[in-house]
Amino acid sequence: MPPTTSTARLEARISPDLHALLKRAAEIQGRTMTDFVVTAVKDAAQKAIEQAEVIRLSLADQQRFADALLSPPKPSTALKRAMAKHDQLFGAE
Questions:
Q1: Cβ-based neighbour number of residue 6 at 10 Å
Q2: Spatial contact of 77 and 85, defined as CB atoms under 8 Å apart
């Protein structure tokens, strides 16, 4: 007996024009409408997540970031106070 895969159902009401457009696009690619829509939605979701989670920097910003990692500035007074407060609350390592 083949392993079962669990699935969830997604329903959406769309205009007849959009339905015709999706159907035509799926036919052009030789896919079912379901496969076409699921793939398109998955690609859009992955792109939205990537745009939200990936930080893109200009070359100048990349250089400043690398410089800060290689030669970090000395801790400021405010940072030292924050570190001391952290140690009081959570214990020093």
A1: 4
A2: no
4 located within any domain: no
Single-letter amino acid code for the residue at 49:
I
Q: pLDDT, tens digit, for every residue of 6-60?
A: 999 999 999 999 999 999 999 999 999 999 999 999 999 999 999 999 999 999 9
Backbone angles phi, psi at 16, to 5 degrees: -60, -35
In a domain, 46, yes or no: yes
Q: Are residues 71 and 50 in the same domain?
A: no
What size, in residues, is the chain? 93
* DSSP code for 58: -
Domain that holds residue 50: 14-54
Q: Token pair 């007849």 is at which residue?
A: 16
HSE-CB at 90 with a 13 A cutoff on CA atoms is 6
Taking residue 36's Cβ as centre, other Cβ atoms within 10 Å add up to: 19
